[in-house]
Amino acid sequence: MYSAGIKYTNPKGKEQRQRLWTSVSPLGGAPKELTFNDFKDFSGSFYQQVGDDDKTVATFATKNLTATAAALKNKYPSCVDSEIVFKLALKLANENGEVAVASAIVECEAEVKETIMDGVKNLFGFGKKDSSEDGEDAKADATSSKSGKKSTKSTKSKKSSKTSKTSESASSSTESASGSTDAKDSKSTEAAEEPKEDVKKRELVHIPVEVVLEKAGIPPFTKEELTTSRDRLKAFAASDKARIQREEALNKLEAFTYKIRDLLENDDFVIKSTEKERTVLSEKASEASDWLYEGGLTAVKDEFKAKLKSLQDLVDPIQTRVKEFTARPEAIKNLKEVVGQTDKFLKDIYKQIDEHEEYLASSSAASSSTPTSSAPAESSTGDFDGLEDEDATEAKQEVEEELPAAATPPLYKREDLVEVEKLNTETKEWLKEMESKQDKLGATEDPVLLSSDIAAKQDKLSKVSMEIAMRGIRSFNSGTKKPKAKKSSKSKSKGKGKGKKFNVDDMDAEIFGEGIDQEELDKILDQIRKRQAEEDKKKEGETKEEEKTKETKEETKKKQGHDEL
């Protein structure tokens, strides 16, 4: 923001300069009003003080000042020439701080007829001083008329009190009184019929003046010019984009011709391609290269793309053979490892299930035979229950704890393993079939066993195996324990059982049997840790939200309690 003002030439030919705003003047403030006593159309400029120089920012000119002053005189003849002035109000616009004309008028004080509205205002006491004086005169007339009526009434009462002797004289006096009353009424009627003079008052009157304000410097575009310029810019942008895309297509084609030369000298590429394929590819690459340097420089983008695609269609199948030849063995090895580990895992779990079922069967048979042989002993010693030595009881419990591993229920049931067993079998059969087909193909034929397909099979089997592992961990975490015979003393059992939180670090390969090694278990547990961390984070967020809600409710209750007090 700079200091700003106005410049113009006065009627004497002297240039006037007046500062209207400082650098700290507020935008949109009260307008600055300038008064001129000359009525010839004139022009001037607005400036901003930049350093020591005055920079013109806009120009102005009056269009009908002289004509407006003359029109004001004609409309209001009572205007005195010396009292007619031209007032120009200027302000700074709120949006950009530019100078704007708030108003431009020719003004004077003239006599104006009182309108009906002015009379209404006077009636209700909103008129000016002269109207109030007229109202006071009217009140005085009304008061005098009332006093006249009172005197007439008193005279009539005196005449009626006279005796009958003077009735004739009274009647004659009454007639004369009525005659005088008629004369008064006729006079008042004549006075009312006399025309009243128009009441005039003096007030400020004005007529607006047209002032043209133009920005200095280069004039702004018209709507048509602005539309044309935008269209040209869009055309330039489209042209630049097309040029860049064409150059990119040209560069890609040229670079691919050089790449083909390198591929034709690569050993793996030569092994996986036939002589015919290499010959055709070499010829096509030479043709494309010659075309580029002869007439292709003026070709369009689509021509470059078509040439590039024709070369890529020849190169891609051979490169796929080279890629699969390198990646397939490693992919097959990884898949076979996963299948083998799954086989061992299933075999070991089925073994655990079989052993546990055998243990349950033998335990059931033993428990069914025990009551018949020990019933008399129990009845004979029942009277001395509770008298057994405590050390002997603990020793007995320790003996009971020494149970075989088969007594521990496995983490899985047979139906849990159906899906993974089926998928593992299908994967083995698929791999065996595809390997057989691939082995029958030559080095220059397109492969049927792709590394991407092998990786997809491995991912699917790993995903199902992970789900089985998570199911076993949930079973382990749900509090699955050995039979009651494994319970130790009360003091030992207090810290175990329900409520024990699962810890991933407590897991080892023995829980899952011999079918899974520690390295694979570590991979599984890493994934489990990530998932568990996400779940803990989610629960922590829910807990914080619940605590926040609880605190809010408590504060609300406290506030309600205070309000009740």
Automatic annotation (TrEMBL):
GO terms for cellular component: endoplasmic reticulum chaperone complex. GO terms for biological process: endoplasmic reticulum unfolded protein response. Residues 127-204, 361-419, 472-506, 531-565 are annotated as: Disordered. The keyword Ribonucleoprotein does not apply. One of its GO terms (molecular function) is ATP binding. It comes from the Eukaryota. Keywords: ATP-binding, Chaperone, Nucleotide-binding. Residues 163-181, 361-381 have a biased composition (Low complexity). Residues 127-140, 182-204 have a biased composition (Basic and acidic residues). Residues 147-162, 481-501 have a biased composition (Basic residues). This is Uncharacterized protein. It comes from Akanthomyces muscarius.
